[in-house]
């Protein structure tokens, strides 16, 4: 009984139930919704969002917050594409991915120095670096979109895991890029649960003071977290450009609130120490559903933002309110 | 017990100064393997500085630290840890979001330099440490779900898992119930038999004397007593700690005709206190005592509306006070001076004046505007009356000493001319001189017809200030005694029953 | 002034900020002497800065409590959209006859929207106990989303001529936006320094727990703080609408960063408890001088964003280093606070 209630009180369960309700309602209003092509479309739409969300979750677990990751993604993606187009058009796609991740990690290191080194408040720092990365990109690197992306990147976007034809003759497919989301989830899971570094990230989020006392290298761990988010942002950026087959420097920025929404819905707490990959992925799934399939439920797409906002408020308000009541009950 | 073996730790002539003030002067301390030592002293006596020196956090200005016969001129926290010196702080320094096994194994894992986290290995470490103290805990449970005693157990096991040879325990018993203290003592005996030394650091140590070989008492940074534990008892300990005989003062006799001020009936809050009833007359000082977790603090908070009781009534001069509403409680004439001055009582970065005046802003507001000069003048007046030495009223309140800070909080409430004042630990962290003065202020307030409730675990303080004392055990009032009719030892016995 | 007086002024963060403002002004005047100091430029600056300066005031009052309001732009645009829709859709052609009357009604409606939005934030933070970051992040999306839903994402145009006055008109020869900003800044200064509410705001920001134990009516105070911030945002929204002669959900999207930057630059402690309106005003002026000067030097909008972000970081780094602080003691994260050695 209590176990049931405990499970019901968890964000993961709530989000899963909402997703289920959404899918059922959408299927009832349009039977075509529940089909392989729709699911593959949703999976495709969750690649970039998912990779970014995994990074943000790691930051939240460590007790920080990052809003600059979209700017890092755009910066890394655009610079890499420009670099490839201008100097090495024949670099294989994995080379491009490595370059983009390296650029992302470097920018993440800047956040890391400011946050771990100077101990500045993470929200305000990353708001500042968001503006810096974006401003630098658009001022000094370029502000025009690159539509002739290198053929290697285009080839990557054509690599499909599954491909098929519907009864009505339309195509559906799932690109190999999806495997990167899976890979990122696995790597992050290994780091978080199978290494001391991961345990240290959770420990810092649980109590910085205790972490210092038992001898955890707090600053080094925080620095790693921001570098890691940066690298993941770089990866998400280059995948985005490959799949869109265009590098638009204005893309991605503005997505940060949706990503944070997904992570917070999945149960990660702003105070740090709490967050699961399952929850994050469920949160991503819900946000992707809302962003792509709201219309199926008969809600106009213009209400998308309201729905996401309300979801954030409910998803974070419910636990906060419960915690407040529990605190007043416990005296 | 190897009281005659080679010393594990030997401190000699330790001196440490902060900004010209001697936190420690010429202090020596010897601890042998398998020995338990009590380090007693009031707040500000230099105990915490000594812990910091022992654990390598602070470097002494003078003196030598010898571990296993080897001198460490500059001991770092890492060296101290490598030598097996582990501190268990009052807050235990645990990770609430991690499991019992992870919390226990973390230090050992870090020390081993492993990069990979192996859950099975961590569980093994945790299980072995728990076996050494003869305890069982769910290794998967999150630490935030544990009781205080179990958290302490986890902290002890963590020290053991990291090969502790000396465990320093800061205020280990304050949060424990009688039964839990018994269990703790059992664990300490096992540790000693295992060759682990223990240093208890506390301002109330009577409870742990029976497992200790040795007692050292600090006062104002100096060692004032040092000897076998058998030579000390609760009374002699507090005499050494305070430097005087306690309980020579007693409150002025109570006016028998004084009107009834406060009536509490059947106050109940699940998990905190149950069916508490008592009354208080104007001019009476009532003590409420009990161990931590006995419900004394929750009861105090409930009187001020900070905790909402599920049942029962609070009546002040016949008027029922709305439950769970501090603003209503304050408006009807109840004041509350909290236990933890620094986090609950004061706005440390704000000026002394503002810290006092914040309680009386409504009274000085005319047409929505705060009349600054009258508000500040009133605040200054109260600071003067409580003889707070204020060099600059605009200076942040954190610049004051503990005793003066406590009087700032008092002044804030007195300015509101309350009819009932609830003082939770009125002299915690206050030096001996200020303590006596605060007791004088309490007597003075009572003489002027205020009802005062003193919540404290400082028995001499209760005996010196209160007319009557309520004893709380497990959330219930088990005794209502006239202070004049009971001795300190008898009171201590009833608290722990 | 004696050297001691001057040194005394410079010890205060606001004194140093005044010096910085003056230096920026002189630098810009020196770089582009004929254009920067022209009457035309000075007036155009007076029309430009109040819209984001008022948002900075909204940010300031919330930051004083140790919170942050990420929804200010959402509220501003929603309030403007409601006012604009009221004028164009509901009243429609009738506006022409009683233009001033309907514009006043629309402004009141916008203020009401701001107050309501602030109330929502206040309830989320005070009653439900949400962290301000999440509460205003979520509510900001909701407010912006309502703006999108009401307009379908496009700009609302065709406002009556009377609406232009508040953003472009003059009062006794002074630009109306400037008058508005000066009035609001003065009002906020008065409220923060001369009322019980102002004292409570700062005290709460310094130590929320002690505020509870001192029997301060925290919930009522937080509600008023967020309602004030919402109404200030609505005023900014009206200014933006009046100057753009239209309302849209994504106007002024760079102002959020700017509002935070100005508050932090003005010496407001993001952890709560310290901040003065004079500091914020000086920060606004230096930002506007900088921005206007950069404009004349032909620097792009993107570069301005870069400079603002760098400034924000620079100010934070300087404030964090103990040997070179612009801000007073006590400006440090709660975790860094330490008790006296015992």
Could you please describe the fold and organization of this structure?
The complex is a heterotrimer of chains A (331), B (497) and C (342). Chain A is mostly helical. Helix content of chain A is 73%, strand content 3%. The two termini of chain A are 25 Å apart. Chain B has 16 helices and 22 strands. In chain B, the strands form five sheets. Chain B has a six-stranded mixed beta sheet with strand order 6-7-8-3-9-10, with helices on both faces. In chain B, strands 16-19-20-13-21-22 form a six-stranded mixed beta sheet, with helices on both faces. The mean pLDDT of chain B is 84. Chain C has one domain: Orthogonal Bundle (ABC transporter involved in vitamin B12 uptake, BtuC). Chain C is mostly helical. Residues 323-342 of chain C have low confidence and may be disordered. In chain C, strand 1 (170-171) and strand 2 form a beta hairpin. Chain C has helices at residues 3-11, 13-31, 33-36, 39-48, 50-64, 72-91, 99-127, 132-151, 164-168, 176-194, 196-206, 208-213, 218-244, 255-265, 277-296, 301-320; strands at residues 170-171, 174-175. In chain C, helix 6 (72-91) packs across helix 13 (218-244), helix 7 (99-127) runs antiparallel to helix 13 (218-244) and helix 11 (196-206) crosses helix 13. Chain C has a two-stranded antiparallel ribbon. Chains B and C meet through helix 1, helix 9, helix 10 and strand 18 of B and helix 11 and helix 12 of C.
